[in-house]
Amino acid sequence: SETATGEASAERAQALAGSGYLVGAHGYPQNNDRADLFLKAGALAGNVIAQVNYGVMLRDGRAGNGGWQALAGAREHFNLAARQGHPVASYNLAVFNRDGIALEQNYSEAIRLFKLSASTPNARQGQAYYELGRMYDYGVGVAKDEDAAETRPERPGAAAIKPKLASPIKKK
Predict the structure, then answer these.
(1) Phi, psi of 3 (to 5 degrees)
(2) SS3 158
(3) Helix, strand or coil for residue 155?
(4) What is the pTM of this model?
(5) I want to staple 139 with a disulfide (CB 3.0 to 4.6 A). Which of 64, 80, 113, 144 is the partner?
(6) Burial of 156 per CB tally in 10 Å (0-12, 13-18, 19+)
(7) 52 exposed, middle or buried (CB, 10 Å; 0-12, 13-18, 19+)?
(8) Local confidence pLDDT in tens for the 172 residues of the chain
(9) 106 with 139: CB under 8 angstroms?
(10) What interhelical angle do 107-118 and 125-138 show, nearest 10?
(11) Of 85, 131, 83, 86, which Cα lies nearest the Cα of 111?
(12) C-alpha separations of 45 from 16, 126, 145, 150, 152 in Å
């Protein structure tokens, strides 16, 4: 319907404007207050890009009042976007689960979400593989498995490389 299309266009416009203000791109100057305004509106309207970017703003203390409440808000926006299949939201939510940020630590959920993010081309795909490798390498939430730790996606012209880690993930 025309109304549904108009609403979708408005949500998309809010997400694009907010994202532009967030990083200072697409002709928008970098402005956290304007990014907050547009991304929050887009996120609350259900736009997946706005949900991810508003979650990033909350996580990084660039929106909201900071502290635990902002982190809980970030978690909720990442969760909403991950449920819609957004792989970067899945990655961010995996980190929250692994580290116990604004929720109870849940390694099995972190592994599931890292795998989901790693299986889809996105800006965090390589990092998701790396984090999975760390968890398998140190046996965090899974049995220690050096073969699984070395698993990397096949990329033309790139060999699979096991990450060299300075320190293990702390187990709680």
Answers:
(1) -65, -45
(2) strand
(3) strand
(4) 0.81
(5) 144
(6) exposed
(7) buried
(8) 345 566 678 889 999 999 999 999 999 999 999 999 999 999 999 999 999 999 999 999 999 888 899 999 999 999 999 999 999 999 999 999 999 999 999 999 999 999 999 999 999 999 999 999 999 999 998 888 777 766 555 443 333 433 433 344 444 4
(9) no
(10) 140
(11) 131
(12) 14, 30, 43, 41, 37
Backbone CA torsion sign across 59, 64, 68, 73 = negative
Length reported for the chain: 172
Amino acid 21 reads: Y
∠ at Cα 72 (70, 77), nearest 5°?
Answer: 95
Alpha helices in 66-159 (DSSP H): 67-83, 87-99, 107-118, 125-138, 146-149
Query: What are the beta bridge partners of residue 155?
Result: 158
Token pair in block for residue 82: 């991950």
* Spatial contact of 152 and 160, defined as CB atoms under 8 Å apart: yes
Provide the token pair at 11: 């949500």
